[in-house]
Amino acid sequence: MTKNQTIGPLSVGNVVSAGLRIYRDHFNAYFNIALQAYLWSIIPIYGWAKLLALSALIGRLAYHETLEQPEVISEARPLVERKMWSFLGQGLLVGLILMGGILGLILVGAISVSILWAILGKNNLMIYLVGLVVFIAVFFAYIWLASRIFIAALPLAIEDNMTATAAISRSWKLTKGSVLRIQGVLFLGFLIVLPFVILFLLIMGFLQLALASIFGSDSSSYPLIVNLLSIAMNIIIGALTLPFWQSIAGVIYYDLLARREASRVKH
Fold first, then answer.
1. Could you list the residue ranges that cross the membrane (predicted)?
2. 78 pLDDT exceeds 80?
């Protein structure tokens, strides 16, 4: 935290409001970055690294907006893009962490169900109850794990001399005790985004019906046109929603740092 910072820790509602305000005030600039990011994602490996770097760039810009110390995009972008391969490595590592954690829980659950199956028989109600408990446990474990590393890209994008693994560790430490608050923020954000996603899906369905009536669903060109339309719509939806989520992430990162600073002052 800087000495010029005057904003304190934020409530769940204030985090979402701040993220929404930043998204609205910088929509054109952030949408342009996000659109470039999703267009780059079409290219394997290099494009994926660019996608992750540009995504993190939006989060960095939003974080500095929260600090009321806005950055110039042309100056911030090179600082983030030079770490693009670190973002790719971090993305792979985060994916492995999530996958490993979930697979581990599923394995434990499957072993538990198998043991009960062998002891009680396959038609015993207890087996189904244990299976349900395992499913719920895996679901909430995924939420907990994802929340702990949700902001992993932000330290890498913002802090100097930060490695991909150190950024994950920083996210893990900062989010300790804040999982429910982060989930509250993400849930409110989801409620905001959901109507627009539904609208785009309806538009997509309407366009598919229109194309089917024009070209005929049995036409050889129809699947290609629909696939191209689907890709275009996904890119547009991604470019519209990515800045919102990254604005939220930037505010969350600020809030977690502010809470850590407040905790230090108390002690």
1. 37-58, 92-119, 125-145, 185-211, 231-254
2. yes
